[in-house]
């Protein structure tokens, strides 16, 4: 019951902010009401985050296929720190993956780039295992990059505002797959109108699902991937997973690549599939 209340923290913070902004009487009843609502909303968000911490008796990592082909770089992953993002929205073991090489971040110019400038944009994303689609959305636009200094300054308040709404504003276009045995996979920041499956569809490992995009809370085209133990991202717990992949030195690994590690799926190396972005 309390978790259903905590989900509304964004509305409480937004209401408090409105009270503070429209207040024209200085420090008074409306101002105190606004401050109180903001504090309560932030405490509700904190309670929700704490409730989504994984239990002590966690299951071992689930072995999955890497959900794309080609050479990618890992960011914000659980091999470097846990939680990799935050416990909120079941992101404890989430990972961000960007195609490499790509345009390098700049301080001042250009302020932003079109998503088509990045090799990740439009790349096919694959089912990591057999499953069924339980949630999907692909109507949000793919926005410009946020990789310059001005973009980074902009994306911080933008991300906060997005967090006040429903999770879809952070996830952007997304898919949730039921992999069975209480395990669900989340694909976020997908390309607009690129979904190749719909809710209720059965999928098989390696099946194309959608394309990588730059929707939602994203600085450049990339895939945000995570596992969780329930279909509701606002109440589920994050789950660990492992991949079979090959680093740039040709060594194969079982696990999750550390931050800033470039890798390819091990199946790419064994099948000999050419990669136009290989070093």
**Structural class, please?**
alpha+beta
Shape: globular
Strand fraction band? 15-25%
Q: Which series of helices and strands comes N to C?
A: HHHEEEEEHHEEEEEEEEEH
Global mean pLDDT: 88
Within the CATH hierarchy, at the fold level, what is the topology of the largest domain? Answer: Glucose Permease (Domain IIA)
> Number of DSSP helices?
6
Could you list the spans in which at least 5 consecutive residues all have pLDDT below 50? 268-279
Protein name: M23ase beta-sheet core domain-containing protein
Biased composition (Polar residues): 261-271
Domain M23ase beta-sheet core: 153-228
InterPro entries: Cell_wall_metabolism_enzyme, Dup_hybrid_motif, M23ase_b-sheet_dom
Set down the secondary structure blueprint.
Blueprint (H helix, E strand, L loop, with lengths): L1 H5 L2 H14 L6 H23 L10 E2 L8 E4 L19 E5 L24 E3 L4 E7 L11 H15 L4 H4 L1 E8 L2 E8 L11 E2 L4 E4 L11 E6 L9 E2 L1 E7 L4 E4 L6 E4 H6 L8
Parallel strand pairs: 1-12
Antiparallel strand pairs: 2-3, 2-14, 3-10, 4-9, 5-6, 5-8, 6-7, 7-10, 10-11, 12-13, 12-14
Helix pairs in contact: 2-3
């Amino acid at each position: 019951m309390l978790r259903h209340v905590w989900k509304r923290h964004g509305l409480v913070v937004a209401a408090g902010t409105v009270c503070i902004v429209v207040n024209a009487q200085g420090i008074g009843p409306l101002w105190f009401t606004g401050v109180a609502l903001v504090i309560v909303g932030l405490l509700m968000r904190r309670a929700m985050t704490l409730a989504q911490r994984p239990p002590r008796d966690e299951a071992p990592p689930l072995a999955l296929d890497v959900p794309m082909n080609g050479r990618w770089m890992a960011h914000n992953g659980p091999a470097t720190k846990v939680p990799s993002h935050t416990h909120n929205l079941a992101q404890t073991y989430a990972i961000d993956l960007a195609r490499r090489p790509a345009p390098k971040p700049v301080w001042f110019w250009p302020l932003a780039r079109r998503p088509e400038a990045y090799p990740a944009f439009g790349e096919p994303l694959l089912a990591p295992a057999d499953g069924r689609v339980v949630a999907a959305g692909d109507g949000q636009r793919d926005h410009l990059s946020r990789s310059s200094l001005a973009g980074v300054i902009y994306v911080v308040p933008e991300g906060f505002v997005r967090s006040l709404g429903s999770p879809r504003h952070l996830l952007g276009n997304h898919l949730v797959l039921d992999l069975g045995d209480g395990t669900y996979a989340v694909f976020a920041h997908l390309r607009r109108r690129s979904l190749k499956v719909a809710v209720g569809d059965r999928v098989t490992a390696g099946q194309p699902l959608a394309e990588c995009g730059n929707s939602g809370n994203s600085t450049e085209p990339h895939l945000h991937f995570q596992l969780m133990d329930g279909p509701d991202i606002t109440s589920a717990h994050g789950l660990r997973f492992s991949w079979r992949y090959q680093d740039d030195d040709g060594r194969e690994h079982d696990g999750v690549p550390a931050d800033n590690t470039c890798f390819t799926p091990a199946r790419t190396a064994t099948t000999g599939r050419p990669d136009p972005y290989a070093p």
